[in-house]
Amino acid sequence: MVIFPSEMYITPKQPRAIETERRFLESMDMLLVSNSYSKLSIEMIAEHAHLHKGAFLNRFGSKKQALFLLFRLYCEECYSTINEISQLVPNTTLSLNEMCASVSSQFEQLLIKNFSANRAMYECFAEDLEVHELTKGIFKSCVAMMLGIQNRYGLLNHEAKGNAFAATQLLVTINFNVVMKAMPAMPIEKTKRHKLIGNIIAEALTFKS
Predict the structure, then answer these.
(1) Which residues are within 8 A (CB) of 92 and not within 5 positions of it... i.e. 6 or more apart?
(2) Rounded to whole angstroms, how far apart are CA atoms 73 and 45?
(3) CA separation for the pair 142, 193 (Å, rounded)
(4) Do the Cβ atoms of 195 and 203 come closer than 8 Å?
(5) What domains sit in the chain, N to C, each tagged with a CATH number?
(6) Which helix (H) or strand (E) holds 92?
(7) What whole-number distance in Å separates Cα of residue 206 and Cα of residue 160?
(8) Block means of pLDDT (10 residues each) for the chain, length 209 residues?
């Protein structure tokens, strides 16, 4: 269940309300590419969507509520990708390092596609120093996926869960910072970059303290 901070939001059911929400969220997503969350105003979103500020507030209640909905769309894509990977893992012929590189590449693509929502959510985290429940849910699902990968390659032991947590942290943190252009020293070429990241994740999964 998705937890929202405001009780003002009601999922739209009528076609007009659904279309209004879509236009607002698409405008917010586009504007966040070149504007920070803190500097993006409801007025700017409404103007871009060719709608009224009052309609935005009636629809979402607040700018942060709209951001959570935008981020939820990213989360839904993440869950779908994680599920697809998890189903393929038991019968894969890839090596552990190749599998980890593939996971890294797919995760980066999700981050690129949903750049705006992820950058804005990080901005909110930096301000509040509190990880949102949606983010925690994705992290937990990634850990479960990593445990499945460990199981496929015979790596389940008493350190397995800790290693899966570490591998997930590396997957998320490295790719997030690459997409946010905070790691310019990483290989520019995609295949080389994910081979390196995949090797690091694989090392985390097999690490023995």
Answers:
(1) 99, 152
(2) 18
(3) 20
(4) no
(5) 70-206 (1.10.357)
(6) none
(7) 8
(8) 52 91 96 95 97 94 93 95 97 98 98 95 87 92 96 88 95 96 96 98 93
